[in-house]
TrEMBL record, chain B:
Species per Swiss-Prot/TrEMBL record: Vineibacter terrae
The keyword Glycosyltransferase appears for this protein: no
Gene3D superfamilies with a match to the protein in the record: Aldehyde oxidase/xanthine dehydrogenase, a/b hammerhead, Aldehyde oxidase/xanthine dehydrogenase, molybdopterin binding domain
Domain of life: Bacteria
One function term, GO molecular function aspect: iron ion binding
Entry keyword ATP-binding: no
Chain intervals for the UniProt region annotation (Disordered): 1-20
Protein name as catalogued: Xanthine dehydrogenase family protein molybdopterin-binding subunit
Keyword set, alphabetical order: Molybdenum, Oxidoreductase
Domain Aldehyde oxidase/xanthine dehydrogenase a/b hammerhead: 23-138
UniProt xrefs under InterPro entries: Ald_Oxase/Xan_DH_a/b, Ald_Oxase/Xan_DH_a/b_sf, Ald_Oxase/xanthine_DH-like, AldOxase/xan_DH_MoCoBD1, AldOxase/xan_DH_MoCoBD2, AldOxase/xan_DH_Mopterin-bd_sf
Length: 289, 759
């Protein structure tokens, strides 16, 4: 139920973090609102104060920095999708963010909101994990930088401390022969929640995989970095044997639940299927670079 | 495509309600408001099955802003009397209990109390203050479990009907139905091939976009006004009158524009409650369901099990057919069992048929009508079995159906003998279609299935009024859920010989036009269309009288042609033709206003047949089905407004594909629905389907002046099996249980090829 809520839209991070800390747990950051407002209407959350971060420049811009990119946490999916250089360097991250919702949702939804909502099925997160993205966090005690996979603590829970805000994502510089890809399985073609999501990021030199990272979503309470799958790929020529081993590693880390969106057996199987398919797409893209 | 002699019929003008709908001006159920209105909210049972020991409403009633609280105590009990509603029958004793639980809550979401308060927030707080003392009882969700001897019994008084001798013990089997033609045993002895399978389907929701909503205002003198989103405002009036003991003429119900119904808005949920709350408070009371309430408490179509046995000669001639259908009725008896049984083999001319049906109650919301109620369930089973037969015989699936197709003169298993029908024409249209003649693309497979629906006639009233400038208003009483206003106006324009835009069709409230049965059974364009045509004929008769008066000749000496009165021949005299505008202008001198009226019980609704073809691919690793091409052909009588006929076919296909692939109710161990929303109740989205091609086969219904047959229900009957048959041909795995969702199909494929699962 929507009770009386206070709304503020500060233009600095200090103000925003201060207000969030002062709200004593009753404050919520508002980015696109495509999770928050839905949850408020459903009566799942009823914050006392809403702190809109879309007036904070650092959170709403994309910059090329040191060969990589810094993406403001509140940048909408549509804006991310229109950034040609980003699309070129990180097609998997961009396609993951662009898969969220529909055209209307894309105009609002942000990667920061997707991460901080902490759904294990959040689409952008496995791709960001595979990309070795780090997040910059601003809080009452200052700034810190952590790998993206350290943010989720469980369904709906993050490791952010009181008053902390995710400011931006940093994507590292690209080596030649690198590319990424993200695939999710949903029963319909859109407007659905991932039954499994898989991000794969590769560097291929002379036909051999020299580095790899794999992120898996919706198969455990948090999005997973699957190091065994990456190990199975690294050093191989991404032949069937390596792919089978990486798929098996993905299946092995799955700790899914049986629920209305899929069975344990199905989710586990699909984790392996998507690993192979996403790897094939990333490999094909890497060949073009 | 239509008879070339028509000027308006078969054309595609804009619908009269179109501009209002695309500009947001149209008013749907939740758009009606009155000064001083209260907001009503319903408290719903959290238990699937519980005895209600007591309800304490005192704390809720004492909350500031709360104006009234009602429970079953506020509704008089009803007799054990069955009345028709839409295509289904309901028992008044059960209706009042479904509107407000009495002795027991019978499903999660069952209404147990309601409040009216000054704001929605106060109403919600009040619900939380109502204390219900429940004795939780064991529950049963599935049909087969509910039929078992040791199943928890929902109704102590329920003795199975249709069984001799009558059982001495109550059970969940409300009814057994038997339906026999010829001698199946003898028939099966002639069979060279016999196919026997068992199938199951899940209940599915009609999925209308607009949730139930109503506004009721009861005045001190006993008069009541109700605004409601409904497929039958006369039914709303009838139910409110009976359930609350108010004379029908005291209740005036106005239907809003309707955001979908598909059969699900032929029953009442909120209206009697809002009316009772309004009676108690003296204020208008508005009630709107949330989507979650729609899923938990309004009627789905039943799920069911069907066992089919079909015997044929090697040449494809079917010699015997048998099926046993068990349908979930939900919490109260009354699934669409009859139609499920009668439609099962209705497409085919078979000498020996035996159908047995069971109506079974369980702890789910009471089912409501949904497009061709019951028929898709038996068609899923029968049309899948025919596909197996075609494969077994090495026969083309269309040829197998042509060999056995029902025709004029075929006697059905349930009694009637078909008059002119178009099943053969429809099969042939598919056989010669570009789609069916195209090669199946690599990686794809093709499925075919047919479907039947009776279509309904029943009671309609209509009026036609000439305005003073000669334009025409056509008044009828059926909420327009499929473009019926456009079709009614087209028929009126054709009959009258005036332009479509000179005819304005409106839908009158219950006090402004005679009785009309619900918008359902694909009856409106047929039956109400007939009433409109007759009302226009009545008006033309009067127009001729007025022209005769003007010319001082006999009315028989006047004919009506192209919107004008003319002398019947040269011997009548030389007169300039009189237009509608001329006759309207002089009406005051020739006898006053010029109107026409008609009322009827329409007989001879022509049955409809559909044949669907689908090409699809199955992703063997994921179980995901991708539909590449879909064609729906149907005998549509005459397509009055072809766009809306095509729309009916396309919409039916989409809903049928959802039924086949993803839609299901997911209950947890406690009998609570786990997916009461569109995210996890997976109806198809637009991007799931290609543009659906349609073939309109026009075999006019001899019992309608323009050959109209209902078209709205047939198209949901074939898709389930069309998709299943294509999946079977694509994978070699025959799915018998719906939905063929990715996890289920993937599991079935893995079970069939164990290697893949291990890989
Ligand atoms: C119709 C529809 C379809 C959807 N489809 C998908 C889909 O396909 N895939 C998918 O993954 N999701 C989907 N979603 C969910 C949602 O759109 C995404 O999670 C989206 O990325 C959320 O971003 P937002 O900016 O709208 O977040 P908001 O709703 O603004 O915020 C989400 C949560 O994160 C917190 N938060 C936001 N930003 C920050 C920050 N910078 N620092 C700290 N906390 C923060 C908020 O307080 C809130 O709790 C869908 C939602 C809808 C309504």
């Amino acid at each position: 139920m929507m009770n009386d809520v206070r709304y503020m839209a500060p233009s600095t991070l200090d103000e925003a973090a201060g207000a969030l800390a002062a709200a004593n747990g009753a404050g919520r950051i508002l980015a696109g609102g495509t999770d928050l407002l839905v949850q408020m209407r459903a009566g799942v959350v009823s914050p006392g104060v809403i702190i809109d971060v879309k007036k904070i420049a650092e959170m709403t811009t994309i910059e090329a920095v040191g060969g990589g990119f810094r993406i403001g946490a509140a940048v909408s999916g549509a804006v991310v999708g229109e950034h040609a250089a980003l699309r070129q360097a990180w097609p998997g991250v961009v396609e993951a963010i662009n898969l969220i919702g529909s055209k209307q949702i894309q105009g609002r939804a942000s990667a920061g909101g997707n991460l901080c909502n902490a759904s294990p099925a959040a689409d952008s997160v496995p791709a960001l994990v595979a990309a070795a993205a780090t997040v910059t966090i601003h809080g009452p005690k200052g700034r810190r930088e952590v790998p993206v996979e350290k943010i989720h603590a469980g369904p709906g829970r993050t490791t952010l401390e009181r008053g902390e805000i995710v400011v931006s994502f940093t994507l590292p510089p690209r080596a030649p022969g690198s590319a990424d890809a993200y695939l999710r399985l949903i029963p319909r073609t859109e407007m659905d929640i991932a039954v499994v999501g898989c991000g794969v990021n590769l560097t291929v030199q002379g036909g051999t995989c020299t580095s790899a990272r794999v992120g898996l979503g919706a198969v455990a309470p948090t999005v997973l970095l699957v190091e065994d799958a990456a190990q199975a790929l690294i050093g191989s020529r991404l032949d069937d044997k390596a792919l089978d081993a990486a798929a098996a590693a993905c299946r092995a880390v799955c700790k899914p639940i049986n629920d209305k969106r899929g069975t344990i057996a199905y989710r586990t199987k699909i984790a392996g299927v998507l690993l192979k398919r996403a790897t094939a797409i990333a490999l094909e893209r890497a060949g073009r670079h | 495509m239509s008879n070339g002699s028509y000027k308006w019929i078969g054309t595609r003008p804009n619908r009269p309600d179109g501009a209002d709908k695309v500009t947001g001006r149209a008013r749907f159920g939740a758009d009606f408001n009155m000064p001083g209105q209260l907001i009503g909210k319903v408290l719903r049972s959290p238990h699937a099955h519980a005895r209600i020991r007591s309800i304490d409403t005192s704390a809720a009633a004492a909350l500031p802003g709360v104006k009234a609280v009602v429970t079953a105590q506020d509704f008089p009990d009803q007799p054990n009397v069955v009345v028709p509603t839409g295509e289904m029958q309901v028992n008044l004793r059960d209706v009042t209990r479904n509107v407000m639980a009495r002795e027991k809550a019978l499903y999660e979401g069952h209404a147990v109390a309601a409040v009216a308060a000054t704001t929605e927030a106060v109403a919600r707080q009040a619900l939380a203050l109502i204390k219900v003392d429940y004795e939780v009882l064991p529950h049963v969700i599935d049909v087969e479990a509910a039929m078992k001897d040791d199943a928890p019994v929902l109704h102590d008084h329920l003795i199975t009907e249709g069984v001799k001798p009558a059982p001495d013990k109550a059970s969940n089997i409300a009814k057994r139905m038997d339906n026999v033609k010829g001698d199946v045993e003898a028939g099966f002895r002639q069979a060279e091939v016999v196919i026997e399978r068992r199938y199951a389907t899940q209940p599915v929701h009609q999925g209308y976009i607009e949730p139930h909503a109503t506004l009721a205002s009861a005045a001190e003198d006993g008069q009541v006004q109700i605004w409601s989103t409904t497929q039958g405002h006369f039914q709303v009036r009838g139910f409110c009158s009976r359930l609350l003991g108010v004379e029908a003429s005291q209740i005036r119900v106005t239907p809003s524009e309707i955001g979908g119904g598909f059969g699900g808005k032929t029953v009442v949920y909120l209206e009697p409650v809002a009316m009772r709350l309004s009676q108690k408070t003296g204020k208008p009371v508005k009630m709107v369901m949330s989507r979650e309430e729609v899923f938990r408490a309004s009627g789905p179509a039943p799920g069911g099990t069907v066992a089919v046995k079909i015997g044929a000669r090697r040449d494809g001639r079917i010699v015997a057919a048998e099926c046993t259908v068990a349908l979930q009725a939900g919490a109260f008896p009354g699934s669409p069992l009859g139609p499920a049984c009668w439609t099962s083999f209705a497409c085919y001319d078979i000498d020996n048929i035996k159908v047995v049906g069971f109506d079974v109650v369980s702890n789910r919301p009471k089912v409501a009508a949904y497009r061709a109620p019951g028929a898709p369930i038996s068609a899923w089973a029968v049309e899948s079995t025919l596909d197996i037969l075609a494969q077994e015989l090495g026969m083309d699936p269309i040829d197998l159906r042509l060999k056995n197709a029902a025709k004029k003169g075929t006697k059905t298993s349930y009694g009637p003998t078909f008059d002119t029908i178009g099943f053969v024409e429809t099969l042939e249209a598919v056989k010669s279609s570009a789609h069916y003649r195209s090669p199946v693309k690599p990686g794809m497979a093709r499925g075919v299935a047919a479907g039947f629906w009776f279509n309904v006639g029943a009671d309609s009233s209509a009026a036609a009024h000439v305005a003073e400038d000669g334009t025409v208003t056509v008044i009828s009483g059926n909420p327009d859920i499929g473009g019926s206003r456009a079709s009614l106006a087209l028929m009126a324009a054709e009959e009258l010989g005036v332009d479509y835009d000179k005819v304005r069709p409106v839908i009158a409230d219950t006090s402004s036009i005679g009785f009309n049965f619900v918008t359902g059974g694909s009856r409106v364009t047929f039956a109400t269309g007939l009433a409109v045509v007759n009302s226009v004929k009545d008006m033309i008769r009067e127009l001729k009288v007025r022209a005769a008066k003007t010319w001082k000749v006999d009315p028989e000496a006047v004919v009506w042609e192209n919107g004008h009165a003319r002398p019947a021949g040269s011997n009548v005299g030389e007169f300039e033709p009189l237009s509608l505008a001329d006759l309207a202008a002089s009406a005051g001198r020739t006898g006053g206003p010029i109107n026409g009226h008609a009322q009827l019980n329409a007989q001879g609704a022509g049955p409809g047949f559909g044949v669907h073809v689908v090409d699809l691919a199955v992703d063997r690793d994921t179980g995901i089905v991708t539909i590449d091409r879909y064609t729906a052909a149907q005998d549509v009588g005459t397509a009055i407004h072809p766009s809306y006929v095509e729309g009916q076919l396309q919409g039916g296909v989409v809903q049928g594909v959802g039924w086949a692939l993803n839609e299901e109710y997911i209950y947890n161990a406690k009998g609570k629905l786990d997916n009461p929303g569109f995210l996890d109740y997976r109806m198809p989205v637009a991007s799931d389907l290609p543009m659906i091609e349609t073939i309109l086969v026009e075999v006019p219904n001899p019992h309608h002046p323009y050959g109209v047959r209902g078209v709205g229900e047939v198209p949901i009957v074939p898709p389930l099996a069309a998709v299943g048959n294509a999946v079977a041909r694509a994978t070699g795995v025959r799915m018998t249980d719906l939905p063929m969702s990715p996890p289920r199909l993937s599991a079935a494929l893995d079970a069939a090829t164990p290697r893949m699962a291990a890989e």
